[in-house]
Design a protein that fits this description.
By secondary structure, this protein is α/β, with parallel strands linked by helices. Helix content is about 30%, strand content about 25%.
Length: about 260
């Protein structure tokens, strides 16, 4: 295929190595792609507060699509410039239904200005974010955890309760259910971004590794799965590339920019 206008890539498990770092090779490949006219956009489940360390790696556009499509973040300014939150009334009902269905469940929400959690959602890194009115803070992403329930059973139960009222994604975080408002996915965020810039889906390549990447991979003109991807992602891909620890995305970018 001809060169894409844009390469969209997930971060954890895809662009980043298993230790969470961005290799020098990948950093250089992203910069070279941008210079050659291929935009590289990060599309990630990470909330805005987890993107600061990558501020020097985003391209000239300066943004990342994060929270599984819930937020558009100006990384350099550390400012959310667009968000797609839950309607408070819808979130209130979802929380009540999940609490009734899964005893001991805990919740946190990711907002433009940080995280909030209830007393049942333990977070060793955040002792300052406890609050009970989670539905009143502009939540773009809902996190749910039930430590006493086996992971597969927990995710299945959450899916059954939520139905089509929200999007349930899985980014690989053990024991964590990640929900965004109905219709808000990595694909919706990427599609909006591209439409605003006159970029057609056929001119986009997308890279991912987990099930929350599937909508984005289905929308893009070419779907690339890293070798370490979930079997469902490998099955959906047009091409399997090197693993994240082998800088698979960098290899693709180097191929695109080779003389």
């Amino acid at each position: 295929m001809s060169r894409p206008a844009l390469l969209a890539t997930d971060l954890d498990g895809t662009l980043l190595r298993s230790d969470g770092t961005l290799s020098d090779r990948t950093r250089a490949a992203v910069a070279a792609a941008e210079e050659s006219g291929v935009e590289v956009v990060f599309v990630t489940a990470r909330p805005p507060r987890w993107l600061d360390e990558l501020a020097d790696a985003v391209g000239g556009h300066g943004v990342a699509l994060c929270g599984n499509g819930a937020f558009v973040l100006d990384v350099a300014r550390r400012e959310v410039v667009e968000s797609h939150p839950f309607a408070p009334a819808d979130l209130r009902v979802l929380l009540a239904d999940l609490r009734a269905a899964v005893p001991g469940i805990g919740f946190a929400v990711e907002c433009a200005d940080g995280m909030r959690r209830d007393e049942h959602f333990l977070d060793a890194h955040r002792d300052d974010a406890v609050g009970h009115d989670l539905e009143a803070v502009g939540a773009g992403k809902l996190l749910a955890r039930a430590p006493d329930v086996e992971q597969e059973a927990f995710l299945t139960r959450v899916s059954e309760v939520v139905g089509d009222r929200a999007e349930l994604g899985f980014s690989g975080a053990v024991g964590l259910a990640e929900l965004t408002p109905r219709g808000v996915t990595k694909a919706s965020g990427l599609q909006t971004w591209c439409t605003e810039r006159g970029i057609a889906a056929r001119d986009v390549w997308a890279c991912g590794d987990m099930s929350n990447d599937l909508p984005m991979l289905a929308w893009a003109g070419r779907a690339l799965a890293v070798a370490n991807a979930h079997p469902d992602v490998l099955a959906a891909a047009d091409e399997v590339i090197g693993s994240n620890d082998d800088d698979g995305v960098a290899q693709v970018l180097e191929r695109l920019t080779a003389p």
